[in-house]
């Protein structure tokens, strides 16, 4: 890894969970808009294979691996990243998991893992990101991934709803705390999106049919549709938007079609 300071006029974004369906689309979208992108995930092989089609952007794309649910690994990563880049203009956390079970069947370990992969990763990334952004002119923009389940009661979503509602609460409080520094903090709340994480659901024709029927627009989402909202939040043109949760959910959270 080259630790020389990167003299770049391009804005710098960190995308965590970059090997996932939505995260990889965010990386692609930001690169195409002229950002320098630090793509991070836990597993190097998966990250490299997912991002291999983006070779044309090799001068703009840097790959790191660390576990965002471990605060020590996050701190070490930020130390290294700060030396190399010196600043951070945008951060997106797409790390997460999906556990669909009723509360009475969820073990302590499963609940702990759901909180760890979703809520803890969000907090452990928020903390060093704002520390860095507070020191730089112009602040920065952070985007967290919530879920439609945070605000609409969906059966068997107790654990993931608790974690994602926690992310929204944290993001709104932080948006208030760090607004004086020009730091904007927002969330996207997707409905069911076709990604590797949701494959088990979408692979079953019965479940897929029921899921499609719940979304007013009559289909499940594409990861690029969520990535588009995330990159929109990061765009400096949105510099007057903070503390918002946008549902990218085919209408699932707010409307019902009979």
- Portion in strands: 5-15%
Secondary-structure arrangement, i.e. CATH architecture: 3-Layer(aba) Sandwich
Uncertain segments: 1-7
Number of helices: 8
CATH C-level: Alpha Beta
Outline the structure in words:
- The structure is a single chain.
- The protein is of the alpha/beta class and 258 residues long.
- It has a single domain, classed as Rossmann fold (3-Layer(aba) Sandwich), CATH 3.40.50.
- Helix content is 42%, strand content 15%.
- The protein is built from 8 helices and 7 strands.
- It has helices at 21-32, 44-51, 71-85, 108-134, 158-178, 199-202, 205-214, 223-234, and strands spanning 12-16, 36-41, 61-65, 90-93, 140-145, 183-190, 245-248.
- The protein has a 7-stranded parallel beta sheet, sandwiched between helices.
- It is globular.
- 43% of the residues are buried.
Summary keywords:
single chain; 7-stranded parallel beta sheet; Rossmann fold; alpha/beta
Give a quick rundown of the structure:
The chain is built from eight helices and seven strands. The chain is an alpha/beta fold and 258 residues long. The N and C termini lie far apart (55 Å).
Please outline the helices and strands.
Layout (H helix, E strand, L loop, with lengths): L11 E5 L4 H12 L3 E6 L2 H8 L9 E5 L5 H15 L4 E4 L14 H27 L5 E6 L12 H21 L4 E8 L8 H4 L2 H10 L8 H12 L10 E4 L10
Parallel strand pairs: 1-2, 1-4, 2-3, 4-5, 5-6, 6-7
Helix pairs in contact: 1-8, 3-4, 4-5
């Amino acid at each position: 890894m080259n630790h020389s300071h990167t003299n770049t006029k391009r804005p710098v974004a960190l995308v965590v969970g970059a090997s996932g369906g939505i995260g990889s689309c965010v990386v692609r979208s930001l690169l195409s808009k002229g950002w320098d992108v630090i793509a991070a995930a836990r597993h190097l092989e998966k990250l490299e294979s997912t991002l291999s089609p983006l070779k044309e952007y090799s001068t703009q794309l840097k790959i790191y691996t660390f576990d965002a649910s471990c605060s020590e690994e996050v701190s070490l990563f930020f130390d290294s990243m700060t030396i190399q880049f010196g600043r951070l203009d945008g951060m997106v956390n797409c790390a997460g998991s999906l556990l669909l079970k009723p509360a009475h069947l969820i073990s302590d370990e499963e609940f702990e893992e759901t909180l760890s992969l979703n809520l803890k990763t969000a907090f452990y990334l928020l903390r060093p990101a704002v520390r860095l952004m507070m020191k730089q002119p112009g602040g920065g923009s952070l985007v967290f991934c919530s879920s439609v389940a945070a605000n609409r009661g969906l059966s068997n979503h107790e654990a993931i709803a608790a974690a994602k509602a926690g992310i929204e609460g944290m993001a709104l409080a932080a948006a208030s705390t760090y607004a004086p520094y020009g730091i904007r903090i927002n969330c996207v709340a997707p409905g069911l999106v076709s990604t590797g994480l949701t494959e088990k659901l979408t692979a079953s024709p019965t479940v897929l049919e029921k899921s499609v029927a719940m979304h007013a627009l009559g289909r499940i989402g594409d990861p690029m549709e969520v990535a588009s909202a995330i990159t929109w939040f990061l765009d400096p043109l949105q510099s007057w938007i903070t503390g918002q949760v946008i549902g990218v959910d085919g209408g699932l959270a707010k409307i019902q079609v009979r």
